[in-house]
Automatic annotation (TrEMBL), chain A:
SMART domains: ETF. GO terms for molecular function: electron transfer activity; flavin adenine dinucleotide binding. Its cofactor is FAD. The electron transfer flavoprotein serves as a specific electron acceptor for other dehydrogenases. It transfers the electrons to the main respiratory chain via ETF-ubiquinone oxidoreductase (ETF dehydrogenase). This is Electron transfer flavoprotein subunit alpha. Keywords: Electron transport, FAD, Flavoprotein, Transport. Belongs to the ETF alpha-subunit/FixB family. Gene3D superfamilies: HUPs, TPP-binding domain. It comes from Sphingopyxis lindanitolerans. FAD binds at residues 201, 227-228, 241-245, 258-265, 279.
UniProtKB/TrEMBL annotation, chain B:
One of its GO terms (biological process) is carboxylic acid catabolic process. PROSITE patterns: ETF_BETA. Gene3D superfamilies: HUPs (3.40.50.620). Keywords: Electron transport, Transport. Its cofactor is AMP. PANTHER family: ELECTRON TRANSFER FLAVOPROTEIN BETA-SUBUNIT, ELECTRON TRANSFER FLAVOPROTEIN SUBUNIT BETA. Pfam families: ETF (PF01012). This is Electron transfer flavoprotein subunit beta. Belongs to the ETF beta-subunit/FixA family. Heterodimer of an alpha and a beta subunit. The electron transfer flavoprotein serves as a specific electron acceptor for other dehydrogenases. It transfers the electrons to the main respiratory chain via ETF-ubiquinone oxidoreductase (ETF dehydrogenase).
Length: 309, 249
């Protein structure tokens, strides 16, 4: 089987999410990559070095610069004439593009696969991760999005992919990019961090989040996360949100501080290796999944923890 | 312009799903069902656009069993003008749903179709994007702000890392994210009024759409259960546990 993997990048470097997709694709067959964007020579070179990669298709065109699905999906659909499966990371970019590709090919997509069980058989979470479905596609071609935390990352070196330019596609004239507000963070990215310190509604304010959560994260070189309640209350930007509707994470250690543990939140973090919960309500559902639980007032316990660790 | 808003009847988001012991699916007998939360946000946004004078009519549509009528009545009570139920007892996949919505869009010629970004039962996050492909319209997914400006709509999208804004040619597809708005509650008088609003019942065959599944569910199982943890007495004990795991500054 020939697979085509969507390379997510920021114009300068391949994003980590791509590496897990390469691993998933390698379980199906030959791995080809697609690097689409504007001025992407450096990204293409880096992509060709990923272990196990065959061909790297490079579509360099201003129309592909901002991942607009109206321009990208027809390009992918055209390349799919010579591939059997299209795989994209289950990031906001992958989720935006892949279903549009699937419909152009008249196939059903299988979203957020957790494992490859056979050439057309996969597992995926449903109901916010409260059930795992094993599903089999009957379509001629596969379109899959891949949950990054469910697969090992492919090595970024050792590959010898051959770079090939693609001339297909262009501006569909339906959409344009206006602007972006990207939150600046000088710390590990949430979805790839080894340690995450996450705060919830119990913090009570943005100031308290800065005062209590941030120092612990700084000390542990951890990424910052939050529950939906904390995001909705405006304590932190929405891209901090961990959960069914936010980011899915699986770090080595996840600190849930002042987070009750609603099922929508658990859906985003319950595959973490170790979960540490600090909450003053001893009946909070978070304690049912926490490896280490501390029933205490977070405003005392967290600064003490930060001081002693 | 008209706005078309697909809505789905799903297991209420507060209910913990139980996997059937025979592995065929999740038990939906005698459990509370509600409108998919992202679809409520879609209805709310459409009504707000009507209140601003941007939209002239809001049409709610649902594909599902006869009981999905309740979901449509909720949409009507919130302020939708009329509803279409495409009645079927089969589980319909996003691709077939998108084909049904495409046929309805061809008939109704809406300026916008506003869908939820995902249904909280199958968690697919596909239908809106697929409808974009089938109609050939632009898509603004995971929207946290929608501003119609003449023959375009500016959609602010929630993306990994922050927000981005795209400008889309109308007609267009929008899928809602949680922060787009706070849906209103239907008042009792509006619930009463909704009972007399028009609701058409159709079938997938009326739109010439084959709903046979492309993806077969082989089994549904419980996720792996985490082994029970321990409660520590104080911060010192927690610090000791963490240090034993190699977590320290």
């Amino acid at each position: 089987m020939k697979t085509l993997v969507w390379v997510e990048h920021d114009g300068k470097a391949v994003k980590d999410a791509t590496l897990a997709v390469v691993t998933a694709a390698s379980k199906l067959g030959e791995v080809h990559l697609l690097v689409a964007g504007s001025d992407v020579d450096a990204v293409a070179k880096e992509a060709a070095g990923i272990a196990g990669v065959g061909k790297v298709h490079v579509a360099d065109n201003a129309a592909f610069g901002h991942n607009l699905p109206e321009n990208i999906a027809p390009l992918v659909a055209e390349l799919m004439a010579s591939h059997d499966a299209f795989l994209a990371p289950a990031t906001t970019t992958g989720k935006n593009i892949a279903p549009r590709v699937a419909a152009l090919l008249d196939v059903m997509q299988i979203s957020e696969i957790l494992s490859v069980e056979g050439p057309k058989t996969f597992t995926r979470p449903i109901y916010a991760g409260n059930a795992i479905a094993t599903v089999e596609s009957s379509d001629a071609k596969l379109v899959l999005t891949v949950r990054g935390t469910a697969f090992e990352k492919a090595a970024t070196t050792g590959g010898s992919g051959t770079i090939e330019a693609v001339s297909a596609g262009g501006d569909a004239g339906l959409s344009s990019f206006v602007g972006a507000e990207i939150a600046k963070q000088d710390r590990p990215e949430l979805t790839s961090a080894k340690i995450i310190v996450s705060g919830g509604r119990a913090l009570g304010s943005s100031e308290k989040y800065q005062e209590v959560i941030v120092p612990l994260a700084d000390k542990l070189n951890a990424a910052l996360g939050a529950s939906r309640a904390a995001v909705d209350a405006g304590y932190v930007p929405n891209d901090y949100q961990v959960g069914q509707t936010g980011k899915i994470v699986a770090p080595e250690v996840y600190f849930a501080i002042g987070i009750s543990g609603a099922i929508q939140h658990l859906a985003g973090m319950k595959d973490s290796k170790t979960i540490v919960a600090i909450n003053k309500d001893e009946d909070a559902p978070i304690f049912q999944v926490a490896d280490f639980g501390l029933v205490a007032d977070l405003f005392n316990a967290v600064p003490e923890l930060t001081g002693k660790i | 312009m008209k706005i078309l808003v697909p809505v789905k009847r799903v297991l209420d988001y507060n209910v913990k799903p139980r996997v059937k012991s025979d592995g065929t699916g999740v038990d939906l007998a005698n459990v509370k069902m509600s409108m998919n939360p992202f679809d409520e946000i879609g209805i709310e946004e459409a009504i707000r656009l009507k209140e601003k004078g941007v939209a002239t009519e809001v049409i709610a549509v649902s594909v599902g069993p006869a009981k999905a009528t309740e979901t449509l009545r909720t949409a009507l009570a919130m302020g939708a003008d009329r509803a279409i139920l495409v009645q079927t007892d089969d589980a319909v996949e996003p691709l077939a749903l998108a084909k049904i919505f495409k046929a309805i869009a061809d008939a109704e010629q809406p300026g916008l179709v506003i869908l939820g970004k995902q249904a909280i039962d199958d968690d697919n996050n596909q239908t809106g994007q697929m409808l974009g492909a089938l109609t050939g319209w632009a898509q603004g997914t995971f929207a946290s702000a929608v501003n119609v400006d003449g023959d375009h709509v500016n959609v602010t999208r929630e993306v990994d890392g922050g927000l981005e804004t795209v400008k889309l040619k109308l007609p267009a597809i929008v899928t809602t994210d949680l922060r787009l708005n706070e849906p209103r509650y239907a008042s009792l008088p509006n619930i009463m009024k909704a009972k007399s609003k028009p609701l058409d019942t159709k079938s997938p065959a009326d739109y010439g759409v084959d709903t046979a599944p492309r993806v077969k569910t082989i089994k549904v199982s419980e996720p792996p259960v985490r082994s029970a943890g321990v409660k520590v007495a104080d911060v010192d004990e927690l610090v000791a546990k963490l240090k034993a795991m190699g977590v320290h500054s």
